[in-house]
Amino acid sequence: MTQLMIVGLGEMGGSLAASLKAKKVAVDITGVDQNQQSLTVGLSKGWIDQAGTLADASEMDFIVLATPVTIIRQTLAQLAKQPLKSTVVVTDLGSTKGQITQIGDQLGARFIGGHPMIGSQKAGIEAADAKLLVGCQYFLTPTTPTVAMVKWQTLLTPLQISWHIMSPANHDQMMATLSDLPHVVAATLAVTASETFQDDASKFKLAAGGFKDTTRIGAADPTMWRDILLSNQESTLAEIDHFQTKLAKLREAIAANDGQAIMDYFKQGQAVHNKLKE
What we know:
It is built from 10 helices and 9 strands.
């Protein structure tokens, strides 16, 4: 039977294991995690077949790294020094790809960078869901097309994934806009409101949908987002600068009592949002 190792049984790694088992993919899954509770949950739910360590990597046909991006880079460097099968496929589920791919390429054609667009503001195996990967948008970022990419796509065929192939650089630039900046804005709004209401925190109880919806992703794991932003620094900084420029334009319109400019600004935002529904 195909041997698969998942390093990191959090929301993403746990969901991958759960979905493969739910779809009855013929694969024997070894879970690796520093958190014993995560392994216990994975075993009790039947999502993994056994717990293991990186020392077991030499026996694997597939190795999936589903930890924070800093740990992914460290693990890839370690795997590059270990004896692995010549036919093994090593991939990751990290949110940024540039730095990860630079290290992963030490494994040659056996590595393929990946990023499924799944997840929530929650963390840990308790947030794992067998349906999370089914039909998801999934990016693969090969530096050159490889057999590893085809093998990984074939294994996940039952999940009916929509695949998108692009360079690591293009992926990271896009994620700076679609993911990194929204999390920065959500966290900044939450921090700003906290400072404004520091003398009366009870005012947060009066918040309606606008504030709650906008700050929802601000509840995401701080460690994970520290690593993501620092590993995609250049693209994220460029998007923050762009955002500040647009915000400054809106501020100018408000200060000048320019109602038409304000209307045009919000109409543009409305149009973009409506496109998301198409």
